[in-house]
Amino acid sequence: MLRSDPSQNARHPQAATNISGRCLVPGSAQAACLHADMGLSFWGGVDPFSGEVIDHHHPLSGQVIAGKVLAIPSGRGSCTGSSVLLELILNGHAPAALVFADAEEILTLGVLVAQQLFNRSLPVVSVGSHAFAALRDACYLRIENGQVQGFAGPPDDGWQDSNTTATEDFPPSRIALNQQDQAMLAGEQGKAAQAAMQILLRMAELQSARELVDITQAHIDGCIYTGPASLRFARQLADWGGRVKVPTTLNSISVDQRRWRQMGISAAFGEPASQLADAYVEMGASASFTCAPYLLDSAPSAGEQIVWAESNAVVYANSVLGARTLKYPDFLDICIALTGRAPLTGCHLAEQRHATLRIDLPPLQNLDDAFYPLLGYHVGLLCGSEIPVICGLEQSAPTLDDLKAFGAAFATTSAAPMFHIVGVTPEAPSVEAALGNQRPGRILQVERGDLLNSWRELDSGESADVELISLGNPHFSLSEFARLAQLCDGKVKHADVSILLTCGREIQRQASEAGHLRTLEHFGVQIVTDTCWCMIEEPVVPLTARTLMTNSGKYAHYAPGLVGRQVRFGSLAECVETACSGHASGRLPRWLAAADTEGAH
Q1: 409 and 325 both lie in a single domain
Q2: pLDDT tens-digit profile of 431-445?
Q3: What pLDDT digit, counting tens, does each position of 187-201 carry?
Q4: Active site residues
Q5: Is-cis flag, bond preceding 539, omega within 30?
Q6: pTM value > 0.85
Q7: Are 420 and 339 members of one domain?
């Protein structure tokens, strides 16, 4: 809530804004302000070693957040943002403070871990959307726990940039604990379980949960190597004897663990990245190494209480499978796996899974597989952290692969944990059911021209010459293998084009048994397991490749910042056609071409 305090203004005549917010992590700081009205994914959006914003689509692109008060409405995108922030805190390139519109869990968790395990911290405050808008013109911010002062210029009271954090422990007081919870908190089940329960309860308090719930399985995203801090965290829990209490799978890691040396990856990166994976396996997780755990036989069923991290997997589990999970940040995922308990809040509760935003689509025909990642990307931009219900696809019959591509792109640009599509996803037999029989807070109409604008954001490369085709973000399914093999059969790849596909080990085995790998390898497709495109860098990305093409809305968004290449976007068939010719056609799909024609008039 925005609050004017005359006495504060008297002490600091230049203070333009005084806000009393919610203190998420205590502490004080004062520094120049970096403000944006768009959420920021730290993974793929911020360099973990310099603090530079590398998301080319973000208004702060090129700015350095180190030592600044970063004011953004929320995080968004990847659950790995907490790990990136921990790296920044421990290497001295973190913001001086974080100011959000609403309580933000992924980035706040990174600060809580730094505080709990490494005695390092920074203040975090949420101020509400109205007060956040009032900070737009502030050039400098002073934070005192939950109090925020904004200044148009440096205050004339001896201002010096500073960051003094409080490390007092605030034990949760409202969360009901059973006997086993209390035993873990007391250290009776080991140091790792105790530390995990302490972090879990700090987060549960932040989420306003009143109790914990048993979970049946976990999927760990924290096995992605973001730098030394991510390994320090996992290694500490393993050294303390941490063991998972529920079946636990691992997300894609940062290298193909079986082949990274022969792929030319340096030992300085490959060894700690592999050691990080080993630390989680040591704690009892299976070496699944896939960002698409919903493709495994262990995928949860409707109503099952789970803890999954990895943004696309969270969205798919909630939306398509009907399982129940929050968008869990890295580090909290393993804490919950080590305790078997999760905060009972958010999408774990039926009443918090309803949509609050309705999105209506125009009549569309002749849709291909490029439509769904594009729509997911666009809808994510519209909804922020709101759960949307999408109307207009009732007769389109999207496949599970279409929903996978939609969800991954949606999770890239939004902070929401799920979506509904009327007549398609299990909790949306009708728009009324998806909305919980309530009126939507907002109703938005998407036009073809809106989709065309988002297409141009994804298909942003200027050159028609393409040297690399990037497939498998998220990891390929068996049906995608079959489709690609059909498209490649009998064709000849251009000699100057590389085509790389990422998948999980289990799906690779199934594709081999089905005979798809023979066709693809004859065409020239290289298969990479264990890792995925959000972690792949040079030399796996060829040094000679200046422009890549992908059918992934998620990777089309992240690639310019992650690997510094131009990106072309299109359907799977367009990717194969480009692999054969070496040139992106630049053709718009039939369902979108009409919008370009309308714009010309």
Answers
A1: no
A2: 999 999 999 999 999
A3: 999 999 999 999 999
A4: 78
A5: yes
A6: yes
A7: no
